[in-house]
């Protein structure tokens, strides 16, 4: 299931629309400084590529982003009548679009540029606070598989975690993408918190093309019948990540 492109009109009729240039620039810089992955979508969401913000040039009103993998993919972005973007900054979904993407370079490196959006959607869509897990030391979830697969279990890296569920990156696409599938007795080892045992139900899937050209699959999974003890462990781990992130932003680590 693919994400629908955000709907951004010319009039401020969306209750979550942001038109303040100062606030928009701050959000773009937040995406850059946190090195967040951003989905860029064309053809009604049929083609999705992953990028990051490289530079926010408010003097020249330019947003510089990483290229898509391959010259043809970049050309499709440039020729598309509109490109839609969606990223996650803390627990807020940031959505915007552009009708004019151009080739550029930064520090000798090919990139794409577009005008800083004049409006965007800042949207809290999740019931629970969700935080990204570390990229440098990925957290892995061990998921038991059916006997007929010939594989006893698989370990898949977490992208983020909340008290309601997790997002996984299934780069080998072992789990499939059937919405509603439930996996019992999954184990997640949370650093400094301990091993937890959970049941997961697939609630959303999205096939992605990474900057290196490889494909990946992002699975949004909901916890099923979570016990109070496991919920407390997840809350402690989220608080630990939040403290570490705040300390990093404050320059203490």
UniProtKB/TrEMBL annotation:
GO terms for biological process: bacterial-type flagellum-dependent cell motility; regulation of bacterial-type flagellum-dependent cell motility by regulation of motor speed. It holds the Pfam family PilZN. GO terms for cellular component: bacterial-type flagellum basal body. Monomer. Interacts with the flagellar basal bodies. InterPro entries: PilZ_domain (IPR009875), Split_barrel_FMN-bd (IPR012349), T3SS_YcgR (IPR023787), T3SS_YcgR_PilZN (IPR009926). It comes from Undibacterium parvum. Belongs to the YcgR family. Its main location: other. Residues 16-122 form the Type III secretion system flagellar brake protein YcgR PilZN domain. Acts as a flagellar brake, regulating swimming and swarming in a bis-(3'-5') cyclic diguanylic acid (c-di-GMP)-dependent manner. Binds 1 c-di-GMP dimer per subunit. Increasing levels of c-di-GMP lead to decreased motility. It is found in: Bacterial flagellum basal body. The keyword Nucleotide-binding applies. This is Flagellar brake protein YcgR. GO terms for molecular function: cyclic-di-GMP binding. The lineage of its organism: Bacteria, Pseudomonadati, Pseudomonadota, Betaproteobacteria, Burkholderiales. Residues 124-239 form the PilZ domain. Keywords: Bacterial flagellum, c-di-GMP, Cell projection, Cilium, Flagellum, Nucleotide-binding. It comes from the Bacteria.
């Amino acid at each position: 299931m693919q994400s629908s492109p955000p709907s951004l009109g010319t009039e401020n009729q969306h209750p979550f629309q942001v038109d303040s240039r100062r606030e928009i620039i701050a959000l773009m810089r937040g995406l850059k400084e946190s090195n967040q992955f951003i989905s860029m979508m064309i053809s009604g969401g049929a083609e999705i590529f992953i990028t990051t913000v490289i530079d926010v040039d408010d003097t020249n009103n330019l947003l510089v982003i990483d290229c898509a993998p391959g010259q043809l993919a970049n050309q499709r972005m440039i020729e598309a009548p509109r490109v839609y973007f969606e990223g996650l900054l803390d627990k807020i979904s940031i959505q915007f679009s552009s009708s004019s993407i151009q080739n550029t370079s930064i520090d000798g490196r090919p990139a794409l540029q577009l005008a800083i959006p004049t409006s965007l959607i800042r949207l809290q869509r999740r019931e629970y606070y969700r935080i990204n897990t570390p990229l440098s030391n990925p957290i892995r979830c061990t998921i038991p598989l059916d006997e007929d697969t010939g594989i006893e279990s698989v370990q898949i890296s977490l992208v983020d975690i909340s008290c309601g569920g997790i997002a996984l990156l299934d780069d080998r696409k072992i789990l499939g993408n059937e919405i509603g599938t439930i996996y019992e007795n999954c184990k997640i080892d949370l650093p400094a918190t301990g091993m937890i045992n959970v049941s997961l139900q697939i609630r959303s899937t999205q096939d992605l093309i990474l900057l290196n050209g490889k494909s990946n699959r992002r699975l949004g999974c909901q916890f099923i019948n979570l016990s109070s003890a496991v919920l407390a462990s997840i809350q402690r781990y989220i608080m630990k990540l939040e403290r570490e992130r705040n300390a990093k932003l404050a320059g203490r680590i």
